[in-house]
Specification:
Distance between the termini: 49 Å
Oligomer: single chain
Shape: globular
Radius of gyration: 18 Å
Strand content: 15-25%
């Protein structure tokens, strides 16, 4: 009873609000209120992670295994407010929460089987410094809490911040991300140990991004990683902007 009473006192002194609807969270609600959580437009990608429409975007481009997204993303839809807050309102906790949701979904259908490590899409150092964190890394941390998979955050670097992809077609998006990633000489594993980049060879990496649209950014990152040797990739994101 004491923890419940303490929780009520904390909620009274430091009210928490849902980033989607703005309503006050109550009781055991965490990040999203119950109504908004149940109302998320969850995708069907989990039904067949190997051959869904999201996975097919990567066929031929990279050695892809499985792809899933938590919910369908549409700009200015209520669900998009959570991702906006994650990226622009200093809410890294939203990324960790969404990562845990992805982790729960994936564990239930064996999505993470055979995966060696999680690799979040990197930001430029300037962008990360300005934001204070990499939103994809926050998502990866949430997934890690459920799967205990190691996170590799420094195997590839992002050299330049490209202009917005929002109003570009598929081909323009691919051109927009050419040469923006650079393979590192070394990477650190989940225990902080340093390895030459060639030690990635043969691994199955789970690539994490906040929103996947055409997959151009993910493809560019994976193609750079493939310079380390033969690799396999799976992809998970919070949103999928199905075109």
């Amino acid at each position: 009873m004491l923890p419940s009473l303490l929780g009520k006192i904390i909620d009274l002194m430091f009210p928490r609000n849902c980033p989607i609807c703005g309503n006050r969270l109550v009781g055991s609600e965490d990040i999203l209120c119950t109504s908004c959580l149940l109302g998320l437009p969850f995708t069907q990608t989990w039904d067949n992670p190997y051959e869904n429409e999201m996975a097919k975007m990567f066929w031929v481009q990279i050695p892809i295994e499985r792809c899933c997204a938590l919910f369908y993303y549409r700009s200015h839809a209520p669900s998009s407010y959570a991702i906006y807050s994650l990226k622009y309102n200093d809410r890294p906790d939203i990324g960790i929460y969404m990562g845990r949701l992805i982790g729960n979904r994936g564990i239930n259908n064996h999505f993470f089987d055979g995966i060696d490590a999680i690799l979040p899409i990197p930001l430029t150092s300037q962008r990360k410094k300005h934001r204070g964190y990499n939103q994809s890394e926050m998502i990866a941390r949430g997934i890690q809490q459920k799967t205990h998979l190691p996170i590799i955050a420094d195997a590839v670097k992002r050299n330049v911040f490209v202009e917005s992809q929002t109003h570009k077609n598929r081909w323009q998006r691919q051109e927009n991300v050419e040469n923006v990633f650079c393979l590192s000489d070394f990477y650190h594993d989940g225990k902080g140990c340093k390895h030459p980049i060639k030690d990635l060879c043969g691994k199955h990496l789970l690539i994490i991004d906040d929103v996947c649209t055409t997959g151009a950014t993910i493809i560019a990152c994976c193609q750079e990683l493939m310079k380390a040797g033969k690799l396999k990739f799976s992809v998970a994101s919070i949103g999928w902007a199905k075109e």
